[in-house]
Amino acid sequence: MKFDKDELNIYEVEALHQSLLNAFTNDDLLLDMQNVNRVDMSVIQLFISVQETAKESSKKFALQNVNEELAQIIKNSACNFLLEESV
Amino acid sequence: MNEELELFCEDADEQLTFMENALITMQEEGVDEESIGALFRAMHTIKGTAGMFGFDAIVGFAHVAESLLSEVRDSKVTLTSEMIDLFLKVKDHVQHLIDLAVAQENIDEFTQATNDELLKMLKSYMPHQTEATIETKLETNTQTENENQKKEALWHISFRLKPNFFATGMDIINILSFFNELGEIKKIFSITSNIPSLQEINPTQAYMGYEILFLSDVEYEDIEEIFEFILDDIELSIFKTDDKERLQELIQNSHDKINLQEELIQQGFYDTSTFQKEEKEKTPAVTQIKTKKSPQKEQKKSFSLRVDSSKIDQLINQISEMVIANAKVAQRADILEDNELSESATILTDMLEEIRMGVMNIRMVQVGDSFNKFKRIVHDVAKKVHKEIDFEIIGGETELDKMVVEKISDPLMHMLRNSIDHGIEMPEEREKLGKPKSGKVTLTTYPDAGTIVIKIKDDGKGLPKEKILQKAIENGLVAENNNLSDKEIYNLIFAAGLSTAEEVSDISGRGVGMDVVKRNIESLRGTVEIDSKVGEGSTFTIRLPLTLAIIDGFLIQSGDTKYIIPLEMIQECIELDDNYKEQMNGNEFINLRDSMLPLLDIRKYFSEEASHSERENVVVIRYGDYKMGMMVDELFGEFQTVIKPLGEVFGKVPGISGGTILGSGEIALIFDIPKLMEHKIREIN
């Protein structure tokens, strides 16, 4: 799954949730973050939820092509584990 | 605007006003270390709180200003008069950036140019600093301070976001970043165990939390301040790591799906021994903690509370309605001759009076806080017109209704500008006249007989009486063969379109303004008077009512109508007996203890029907320097008066400022004493 937006936040989180639910039924969840520079806590929280759910269903979840700025935000939120690939 | 953003604006406004006052004071009285430290802290706070909202433009700009202030504080750069002017501009610009950010507007070209120009000027005072050193400078400063001043402590900060947290619009990541401004985050981990699965999660609800070990020399209040805007939207616990009782309380009250104690040990916050020792004392410790819970926090809360002023207005309206309803009960008790009910109504009246006074007091603010901003205006205007002004505020501690203070602000500003621009002479001219080079402008406030008096006095050239009169005649405002008193001539400057300024400046002189000033003051049920002496200066005296909603009134009747006189203006009531009537001999004066008291016959003035009363009375009132007796029929006594507007049709009846509803449901009209007084004075003249 790839995102066009520079920033993902509370305003998009419901739509994002729906897309992730749809995508989750099929395959592993690999999110291409190439275009995303910023996320807020609501999005981070949703990613954590996906990561945990994926773990339980033995599916693969990963944030890919995370740029430096985004990585820093995730680190600042003390959620570094999101940057690790999970299977 | 959401509540958090409103709080941010109020907070920033306070910091900026504080900054402005400190700068103006230093400009006048010289630089002092304490004010510099305070300036630095104000800019630092704005930067920090703006950062919490993600207002990057403000953070970036404030950061450079803060760096220069830090240099000044460390005596590496000397604060000059030019720099004070620069910081005043910085203050204005930050205010503008905040306005834009709050309105979610983009930075326009002009603002960007100002921004760049100011940054360039700020940096020019720090030539040895590169961008990178400016960046690290503040951190170094914090470190040095830490070493020099206080002992560091290790704090445990624990918080959980409440489900509706995201509705605040605050991003917790920005708040976490702010911790680095105050100290060092030693350890941090997020609590994610409460986040539901992808199928069950409501993505707009918050489920997360944090545990933080924070090393800093700051106090409890400083850490709590980081969460200032979201205190109601999180569950927060702050304590020093050696406070085992609070730690036990935290673990006991945890609703997390993980075992918090184990997690804290695993993350290296505490070792196992910390909990083993406490295990035995667990129960009593918790009971103790409940009563001890964060004493600092409670003390601070009881100190001040921000409340939306509309909530207080609503409360006043409700009390007003209760006052009216209670008056009905009291009257009914009288009719029924029910003593018990009457007594209860009296008790209720007293209680309502106390509540009313209490609520009114909430609205009262010291005028000084608001008037201090005039220092800046005087400073700027004086500079612009190349004059030297010694400006003084006297009686800043006088209290006045907040709304009145806000509404009087613009008229005062206009009058001050006029005083400086037109009143005060140029320094050379003043020296030639043997006056001090600096012109003196004083803003004095004091309470007087139920009103608040605000005086603007200057020692300038005074009002040009002939010129004003000439202009008024030219404009057809007065007839050529008029017989106007000095005060009446001065009052002509309040007429629309009358300006005697020979040169129109961008400060004043366009002839618009003074009429608006008068209208604004009158809309507050106030009056304005002018006194002036050529060569000596002018004094503008504004008189305002203390409050706008409920007043203590005195109920009287004249003819068939009941009227209210504001109680505080009443000096005494006397019976107009035959002796007095004889003295009057057809004139409207009586001799009251050897002084002449002009009388206003209310029945005649309002064309009332003949009196039904057996005796006539005179209510002696005082307003400012004037005294007058009002001839009325019946005196009923004190009455809590809820002021109701009269609406468009009756709103402009001269001598009446409003109406009120009596217990019987009857209407009583409230006298506009200044207007009645003005009528009488005109009649005498």
Protein topology:
The complex is a heterodimer of chains A (87) and B (685).
Chain A: E1 7-8, H1 13-26, E2 29-32, E3 38-39, H2 41-56, E4 61-64, H3 68-76
Helix pairs in contact in A: 1-2
Chain B: H1 3-29, H2 33-52, H3 56-73, H4 81-102, H5 109-124, H6 131-148, E1 153-161, H7 172-182, E2 184-191, E3 209-216, H8 220-226, E4 234-240, H9 244-252, H10 260-266, H11 272-279, H12 282-292, H13 295-303, H14 309-336, H15 339-363, E5 364-366, H16 367-371, H17 373-384, E6 389-394, E7 399-401, H18 402-423, H19 427-432, E8 439-448, E9 451-458, H20 465-474, H21 486-491, H22 514-523, E10 527-533, E11 537-545, E12 550-558, E13 561-566, E14 570-575, H23 578-584, E15 589-592, E16 595-601, H24 602-605, E17 617-623, E18 626-632, E19 634-642, H25 647-650, E20 656-661, E21 667-671, H26 673-684
Parallel strand pairs in B: 6-8, 13-21, 16-18
Antiparallel strand pairs in B: 1-3, 1-4, 2-3, 5-7, 8-9, 9-11, 10-11, 12-13, 12-19, 14-17, 15-16, 17-18, 20-21
Helix pairs in contact in B: 1-2, 1-4, 1-17, 2-3, 2-7, 3-4, 3-5, 3-6, 4-5, 9-12, 14-15, 17-18, 18-22
Your description of this structure?
The complex is a heterodimer of chains A (87) and B (685). By secondary structure, chain A is of the alpha/beta class. Chain A has one domain: Transcription Regulator spoIIAA. In chain A, 45% of the residues lie in helices and 14% in strands. Chain A has three helices and four strands, in the order E-H-E-E-H-E-H. In chain A, the strands form two sheets. Chain A has a two-stranded parallel ribbon with strand order 1-3. Chain A has a two-stranded parallel ribbon with strand order 2-4. Chain B is an alpha+beta fold and 685 residues long. Chain B folds into five domains: 3-147, Four Helix Bundle (Hemerythrin (Met), subunit A) (Up-down Bundle); 150-273 and 281-289, Alpha-Beta Plaits (2-Layer Sandwich), CATH 3.30.70.1110; 309-365; 372-545, Histidine kinase-like ATPase, C-terminal domain (Heat Shock Protein 90); 550-684, SH3 Domains (SH3 type barrels, Roll). Chain B is 49% helix and 21% strand. Chain B contains 26 helices and 21 strands. In chain B, strands 6-8-9-11-10 form a five-stranded mixed sheet. The longest helix of chain B is centred in the middle third of the chain and has 28 residues, at 309-336. Chain B is flat. Residues 135-149, 280-302 and 502-512 of chain B have low confidence and may be disordered. At the A-B interface, helix 1 and helix 2 of A face helix 7 and strand 2 of B.
